[in-house]
Amino acid sequence: MTSVDLKSVLSSFCTGVAVVTACGGDGRPAGMAVQSFSSVSLDPPLVCFCPARTSATWPRIEAAGAFAVNILAADQEELCRRFAVTGGDKFAGVAWRAGGNGAPVLDGVLASVECDLEGVLDGGDHAIVLGRVTTLAAHRGGPPLLYFRRSYGSLPGSPGAASPSMSSSIFAARSRSEA
Protein backbone atom coordinates (compact mmCIF):
# COMPACT_ATOMS: atom_id res chain seq x y z
CA MET A 1 0.00 0.00 0.00
CA THR A 2 1.32 3.42 -0.96
CA SER A 3 0.21 6.90 0.06
CA VAL A 4 -1.23 7.25 -3.46
CA ASP A 5 -3.36 4.12 -2.86
CA LEU A 6 -4.50 5.46 0.51
CA LYS A 7 -5.48 8.85 -0.94
CA SER A 8 -7.26 7.24 -3.87
CA VAL A 9 -9.41 4.92 -1.76
CA LEU A 10 -10.11 7.39 1.05
CA SER A 11 -11.20 10.04 -1.47
CA SER A 12 -14.31 7.87 -1.87
CA PHE A 13 -15.51 9.23 1.46
CA CYS A 14 -17.41 12.48 0.92
CA THR A 15 -16.73 15.22 3.46
CA GLY A 16 -17.93 18.70 4.19
CA VAL A 17 -15.50 21.58 3.99
CA ALA A 18 -14.75 24.20 6.63
CA VAL A 19 -12.30 27.02 7.26
CA VAL A 20 -10.63 27.07 10.67
CA THR A 21 -9.68 30.59 11.77
CA ALA A 22 -7.95 32.29 14.68
CA CYS A 23 -6.49 35.66 15.55
CA GLY A 24 -2.78 35.47 16.27
CA GLY A 25 -0.94 37.23 19.06
CA ASP A 26 0.00 39.92 16.53
CA GLY A 27 -3.71 40.64 15.94
CA ARG A 28 -3.61 39.30 12.39
CA PRO A 29 -6.16 36.67 11.36
CA ALA A 30 -5.04 33.20 10.28
CA GLY A 31 -7.09 30.58 8.48
CA MET A 32 -6.93 27.24 6.72
CA ALA A 33 -9.36 25.05 4.79
CA VAL A 34 -10.02 21.61 6.29
CA GLN A 35 -12.09 18.62 5.30
CA SER A 36 -11.24 16.70 8.45
CA PHE A 37 -13.70 18.40 10.81
CA SER A 38 -15.88 16.23 13.03
CA SER A 39 -17.99 16.18 16.16
CA VAL A 40 -16.28 14.15 18.91
CA SER A 41 -18.36 14.41 22.08
CA LEU A 42 -21.58 15.98 23.34
CA ASP A 43 -20.54 15.94 27.00
CA PRO A 44 -18.17 17.67 27.14
CA PRO A 45 -18.85 19.40 23.81
CA LEU A 46 -15.78 18.57 21.69
CA VAL A 47 -14.95 18.76 17.99
CA CYS A 48 -11.78 17.93 16.09
CA PHE A 49 -9.89 18.73 12.92
CA CYS A 50 -6.60 17.42 11.59
CA PRO A 51 -4.06 19.88 10.13
CA ALA A 52 -0.91 18.65 8.39
CA ARG A 53 2.26 18.95 10.46
CA THR A 54 3.74 20.88 7.52
CA SER A 55 1.03 23.57 7.69
CA ALA A 56 2.35 27.11 8.08
CA THR A 57 -1.04 28.24 9.45
CA TRP A 58 -1.59 25.60 12.13
CA PRO A 59 1.15 26.93 14.49
CA ARG A 60 -0.52 30.36 14.46
CA ILE A 61 -3.92 28.84 15.28
CA GLU A 62 -2.39 26.67 18.00
CA ALA A 63 -0.62 29.66 19.56
CA ALA A 64 -3.91 31.59 19.66
CA GLY A 65 -5.43 28.95 21.95
CA ALA A 66 -8.91 29.52 20.49
CA PHE A 67 -10.37 29.13 17.02
CA ALA A 68 -13.56 29.15 14.97
CA VAL A 69 -14.69 26.50 12.52
CA ASN A 70 -16.60 28.10 9.64
CA ILE A 71 -18.77 25.52 7.84
CA LEU A 72 -18.90 26.43 4.16
CA ALA A 73 -21.94 26.59 1.89
CA ALA A 74 -22.04 25.14 -1.62
CA ASP A 75 -21.62 28.62 -3.13
CA GLN A 76 -18.34 29.21 -1.25
CA GLU A 77 -15.92 27.09 -3.30
CA GLU A 78 -13.83 30.14 -4.21
CA LEU A 79 -13.52 31.05 -0.52
CA CYS A 80 -12.42 27.48 0.23
CA ARG A 81 -9.77 27.58 -2.50
CA ARG A 82 -8.44 30.86 -1.08
CA PHE A 83 -7.89 29.27 2.35
CA ALA A 84 -6.54 25.99 0.92
CA VAL A 85 -3.28 27.55 -0.27
CA THR A 86 -0.12 28.43 1.62
CA GLY A 87 0.97 32.04 1.94
CA GLY A 88 -0.52 35.31 0.86
CA ASP A 89 -3.18 37.36 2.59
CA LYS A 90 -6.05 34.89 2.65
CA PHE A 91 -8.33 37.47 4.30
CA ALA A 92 -7.88 40.20 1.66
CA GLY A 93 -11.38 41.15 0.52
CA VAL A 94 -13.04 38.55 2.78
CA ALA A 95 -15.80 39.89 5.03
CA TRP A 96 -15.70 38.63 8.60
CA ARG A 97 -16.37 39.63 12.19
CA ALA A 98 -14.59 38.69 15.38
CA GLY A 99 -16.39 35.92 17.24
CA GLY A 100 -16.75 35.86 21.00
CA ASN A 101 -13.30 34.27 21.33
CA GLY A 102 -11.74 36.73 18.88
CA ALA A 103 -11.48 34.24 16.01
CA PRO A 104 -12.80 35.36 12.62
CA VAL A 105 -16.32 34.23 11.75
CA LEU A 106 -16.59 34.46 7.97
CA ASP A 107 -19.63 36.10 6.37
CA GLY A 108 -21.99 33.83 4.47
CA VAL A 109 -21.04 30.52 6.10
CA LEU A 110 -23.72 27.99 6.99
CA ALA A 111 -22.61 27.80 10.61
CA SER A 112 -19.76 28.61 12.94
CA VAL A 113 -18.38 26.74 15.93
CA GLU A 114 -16.12 28.67 18.32
CA CYS A 115 -13.74 26.63 20.45
CA ASP A 116 -11.01 26.79 23.03
CA LEU A 117 -8.06 24.56 22.22
CA GLU A 118 -8.56 21.47 24.40
CA GLY A 119 -5.61 19.35 23.26
CA VAL A 120 -3.43 18.17 20.41
CA LEU A 121 -2.78 14.48 19.78
CA ASP A 122 -0.24 12.80 17.52
CA GLY A 123 -1.76 11.75 14.22
CA GLY A 124 1.36 10.80 12.27
CA ASP A 125 1.98 13.42 9.60
CA HIS A 126 -1.06 15.31 10.93
CA ALA A 127 -2.08 16.63 14.33
CA ILE A 128 -5.44 15.71 15.82
CA VAL A 129 -6.77 18.92 17.33
CA LEU A 130 -9.51 18.80 19.95
CA GLY A 131 -11.56 21.92 20.53
CA ARG A 132 -13.99 22.54 23.40
CA VAL A 133 -17.06 24.22 21.93
CA THR A 134 -17.84 27.55 23.63
CA THR A 135 -20.28 29.10 21.14
CA LEU A 136 -22.02 27.89 18.03
CA ALA A 137 -24.50 29.36 15.57
CA ALA A 138 -26.35 28.45 12.41
CA HIS A 139 -26.17 31.50 10.12
CA ARG A 140 -28.18 30.55 7.03
CA GLY A 141 -29.82 27.68 5.20
CA GLY A 142 -28.61 26.06 2.04
CA PRO A 143 -26.60 23.08 0.89
CA PRO A 144 -23.05 22.49 2.18
CA LEU A 145 -19.86 22.56 0.14
CA LEU A 146 -18.70 18.97 -0.26
CA TYR A 147 -15.37 17.40 -1.22
CA PHE A 148 -15.37 14.05 -3.03
CA ARG A 149 -12.64 12.38 -5.10
CA ARG A 150 -10.57 15.57 -5.17
CA SER A 151 -13.46 17.69 -6.48
CA TYR A 152 -15.91 20.11 -4.92
CA GLY A 153 -19.65 19.66 -5.20
CA SER A 154 -22.99 20.00 -3.45
CA LEU A 155 -26.06 17.94 -2.69
CA PRO A 156 -28.46 17.42 -5.58
CA GLY A 157 -31.88 19.01 -5.46
CA SER A 158 -33.19 22.44 -4.66
CA PRO A 159 -30.91 24.87 -2.80
CA GLY A 160 -31.52 24.96 0.92
CA ALA A 161 -33.71 21.91 1.21
CA ALA A 162 -33.15 18.18 1.03
CA SER A 163 -35.55 16.16 -1.08
CA PRO A 164 -38.28 14.31 0.88
CA SER A 165 -36.64 10.95 0.17
CA MET A 166 -33.27 12.26 1.38
CA SER A 167 -34.82 13.71 4.55
CA SER A 168 -36.58 10.41 5.25
CA SER A 169 -33.35 8.48 4.70
CA ILE A 170 -31.41 10.80 6.99
CA PHE A 171 -34.10 10.55 9.69
CA ALA A 172 -34.15 6.75 9.45
CA ALA A 173 -30.36 6.56 9.66
CA ARG A 174 -30.27 8.89 12.67
CA SER A 175 -32.86 6.84 14.52
CA ARG A 176 -30.67 3.72 14.12
CA SER A 177 -27.35 5.45 14.81
CA GLU A 178 -25.34 4.67 17.89
CA ALA A 179 -22.84 7.47 17.21
Keywords:
single chain, seven-stranded antiparallel β-sheet
What does this structure look like?
This protein has helices spanning 3-10, 58-64, 77-83, 164-176, and strands at 15-16, 18-23, 29-34, 38-41, 46-49, 66-71, 96-98, 104-106, 111-123, 126-138, 146-148, 151-153. By secondary structure, the chain is of the alpha+beta class. A hairpin with a 2-residue loop joins strand 9 and strand 10 (126-138). Residues 160-179 have low confidence and may be disordered.
Low-confidence stretches: 160-179
Shape: globular
Number of helices: 4
Number of strands: 12
Structural class: alpha+beta
Strand fraction: 35-45%
Largest sheet: 7 strands, antiparallel
> What is the average per-residue confidence, as pLDDT, rounded to a whole number?
86
Instruction: Give me the strand/helix succession.
Output: HEEEEEHEHEEEEEEH
Specify Rg, calculated over alpha carbons. 16 Å
Beginning-to-end CA distance, first to last residue: 30 Å
- Bin the helical content: 10-25%
Main sheet strand line-up: 3-2-6-9-10-5-4
Note the topology.
Layout: H1 3-10, E1 15-16, E2 18-23, E3 29-34, E4 38-41, E5 46-49, H2 58-64, E6 66-71, H3 77-83, E7 96-98, E8 104-106, E9 111-123, E10 126-138, E11 146-148, E12 151-153, H4 164-176
Antiparallel strand pairs: 1-11, 2-3, 2-6, 4-5, 5-10, 6-9, 7-8, 9-10, 11-12
Short précis:
This protein is an alpha+beta fold and 179 residues long. It has helices at 3-10, 58-64, 77-83, 164-176, and strands at 15-16, 18-23, 29-34, 38-41, 46-49, 66-71, 96-98, 104-106, 111-123, 126-138, 146-148, 151-153.
